[in-house]
Amino acid sequence: MAGELIASDAFIKGCAAIGAGLAVGLAGIGAGAGESGIGAAAVGAIAEDRGFLGLGLLFTVIPETIVIFGLVISFILMFAYG
Known about the structure:
- The structure is a single chain.
- By secondary structure, the chain is mainly α.
- Helix content is 89%, strand content 0%.
């Protein structure tokens, strides 16, 4: 009975959907946690010297790439198993 449930197509699609949601959600939480400290430091550096504007923006954008990776993983899961 349990072997049939795990091998069923609906169970595999459901696990892929849960995995895709976790990939995007946890990546977003991690990027937000990382960006909070970086953003505060960037604002402080820019307030002291305007020359740090480009560098501060660059360092603030870098954690967002993690969310893009999570989104790519979720698309791979949904197109492969969904």
